[in-house]
Amino acid sequence: MKTIGQTIKTARLKKGLNIVEAAERAGINRMALTRIENEQVAIIDLSYIEKIVNALGMDPFIVFSSANIKFDQISIENLIKGSRKLTFRGKEVDIDKFIQLMNDHIDAVSNE
């Protein structure tokens, strides 16, 4: 099972991007991306994951399911810092719906 950081790094390398290029595309600090890829952070702000997956054209379900994460197992409030909405691929998504979709997808993948 890969970690979120390993999954992101694999996608970045497949795109042929170095860490600086990927961070610039995502609009985040290079060191933040480095820490995420190297699993040097205890809690990853969901807005960073959103920016990274958008910049790399990744499927968010793959990112989380690769690490076998279920949102009921982690503190979603810490991840999203109190927000009830997030923007993904230019669309505003209700966080409760996103959580349910993620859990459903992970359950489906786990049953395959």
TrEMBL record:
<dbReference type="InterPro" id="IPR001387">
    <property type="entry name" value="Cro/C1-type_HTH"/>
</dbReference>
<dbReference type="Pfam" id="PF01381">
    <property type="entry name" value="HTH_3"/>
</dbReference>
<protein>
    <submittedName>
        <fullName>Helix-turn-helix</fullName>
    </submittedName>
</protein>
<dbReference type="GO" id="GO:0003677">
    <property type="term" value="F:DNA binding"/>
</dbReference>
<feature type="domain" description="HTH cro/C1-type">
    <location>
        <begin position="8"/>
        <end position="64"/>
    </location>
</feature>
<dbReference type="InterPro" id="IPR010982">
    <property type="entry name" value="Lambda_DNA-bd_dom_sf"/>
</dbReference>
